[in-house]
Amino acid sequence: MAKSIKLRYFASLQEQAKVAEESLVTKLNTYQELYDSLAERHGFNLSSSQVKVAVNDEFTTMENTILDQSTVVFIPPVAGG
Q1: What's CA 35's distance to the chain center, in Å?
Q2: Is 23 exposed, middle or buried (0-12, 13-18, 19+ CB in 10 A)?
Q3: Helix (H) or strand (E) holding 71
Q4: Rounded distance, CA 15 to CA 44, Å?
Q5: pLDDT per position in the chain (81 positions), as tens?
Q6: CB contact burial 34-69 (16+ within 10 A = b; e otherwise)
Q7: φ and ψ at 75, to 5 degrees?
């Protein structure tokens, strides 16, 4: 079943995707599959083990099933001081 989601990008992922957010309809099952697909499409240089995923403002794991009508954010490592 296709799921409609909103994606948001921050930091280096936003720079590589060249957009801050986008809507997507997907038949992929997990956030891992979604990230891998997006990485290929946008040329992300971070592996999925280097990013965290949040769905509807709550952290989740890459193995979880994509929720329909959700907002998904992949968060790259952020340097701070």
Answers
A1: 5
A2: exposed
A3: strand 70-75
A4: 9
A5: 899 999 999 999 999 999 999 999 999 999 999 999 999 999 999 999 999 999 999 999 999 999 999 999 999 987 655
A6: bbbebbeebebebebeebebebeeeebebeeebeee
A7: -110, 115
